[in-house]
From TrEMBL:
It comes from the Bacteria. Keywords: ATP-binding, Glycosyltransferase, Nucleotide-binding, Transferase. Involved in the formation of 2-(5''-phosphoribosyl)-3'-dephosphocoenzyme-A, the prosthetic group of the acyl-carrier protein of the malonate decarboxylase. The keyword Chloroplast does not apply. Belongs to the CitG/MdcB family. InterPro entries: CitG, TriPribosyl-deP-CoA_syn. The gene is mdcB. It catalyses: 3'-dephospho-CoA + ATP = 2'-(5''-triphospho-alpha-D-ribosyl)-3'-dephospho-CoA + adenine. This is Probable 2-(5''-triphosphoribosyl)-3'-dephosphocoenzyme-A synthase. GO terms for molecular function: glycosyltransferase activity; triphosphoribosyl-dephospho-CoA synthase activity. Coiled coil: none annotated.
Length: 310
């Protein structure tokens, strides 16, 4: 069992998770830096999945607005994707021409999506996270001498803006349709802009909450709420349209205005928002993906600068 698998090892949860993990292929050693970065990504995904109470989202206590997802499936998916993220990091280390890198990681990401769907029996657990965290782990591996969040996000944006000749022109995914129907940028636009909701919204809110003494759970919830308050979340748009998105954004802003997740009034309004999103059957999955990506970059702020082998 690797470090990510043991993060939340209580007897009950470990036994439940083991049922999903029994048939997963083990990740094979590759490059020490790539292995380390892959572990960071998986840990960030599990941290996001476990964080509670998240409004409308799967967490360790609830399915949120989902009928086909739960915490153990999210964790199993994250762990199954570890070899994908290791391979993406390896590509960042090994492939210097940016266009060739873009096409290589596109192929790896599509293979990773197939692995995810095989693991989950067709349920989309992490399609958006493969895109966002795949770009970020590639960009991080490319130059670990500068692993500040803004620098990594900028490198990821440079990669995202390049074309991939081998990518399908249309996927038919709900997020793609929502971008077209509501004229929003979605996950692709967020990446091509250098992930502004991570570097300018989530991480600053995380830092502010920590500085004022909020516990880590509250700080992470506040970071999620800050993203929800302004993101044109295609997961919400796809399920509930603009009216649902307005409720998500207004509800998140209201929780933060009441002191956020560390304050009693904020927690009351957070629980009310959760009940409302479950009632609407909407889940801010785009915001959750960006929170996981922010937690990944937050982990890298504590990394010692590293130069990969030539």
């Amino acid at each position: 069992m690797n470090a990510a698998q043991s993060l939340y090892k209580t007897p009950e949860l470990a036994a439940h998770l083991a049922a999903y993990l029994a048939d997963l292929p083990a990740a094979h050693p590759t490059d020490p830096l790539a292995d380390r970065l892959g572990e960071h990504v998986v840990a960030a995904l599990i941290d996001e999945a476990t964080l509670a109470p998240k409004p409308g989202l799967v967490d360790i206590r609830s399915r949120g607005a989902h009928r086909d997802l739960d915490w153990t499936l999210m964790c199993a998916s994250a762990l199954a994707l570890q070899p994908t993220f290791v391979n993406l990091a390896r590509a960042g280390i090994e492939t210097q021409p940016l266009l060739a890198l873009r096409e290589r990681i596109g192929a790896i990401g599509r293979d990773g999506e197939t692995c995810m769907l095989d693991t989950t029996r067709g349920v989309n657990t992490h399609r958006g996270a493969i895109w966002a965290l795949g770009l970020l782990v590639t960009a991080a591996a490319r130059d670990m001498t500068d692993c500040t969040p803004r620098a990594i996000a900028a490198r990821a944006g440079s990669i995202a803006r390049l074309p991939d000749r081998y990518a399908p022109s249309h996927t038919g995914n709900k997020g793609e349709r929502a971008c077209r129907d509501y004229d929003v940028g979605g996950a692709r636009g967020q990446a091509q802009a250098g992930f502004p909701h991570i570097v300018d919204v989530a991480l600053p809110e995380l830092d502010r909450a920590r500085e004022r003494g909020d516990n880590e759970t509250a700080a992470r919830l506040n970071a999620l709420l800050a993203v929800m308050a302004s993101l044109d979340d295609t997961c919400v748009l796809a399920r509930g349209g603009r009216s649902a998105l307005a409720e998500v954004q207004q509800g998140a802003r209201h929780v933060l205005a009441q002191g956020g997740a560390a304050q009693l009034d904020g927690r009351r309004h957070l629980k009310a928002l959760d009940r409302r999103l479950v009632e609407l059957h909407v889940s801010p999955g785009g915001a959750a993906d960006l929170l996981a990506a922010a937690l990944f970059l937050d982990r890298l702020r504590n990394e010692v600068p590293y130069t990969a082998k030539a």
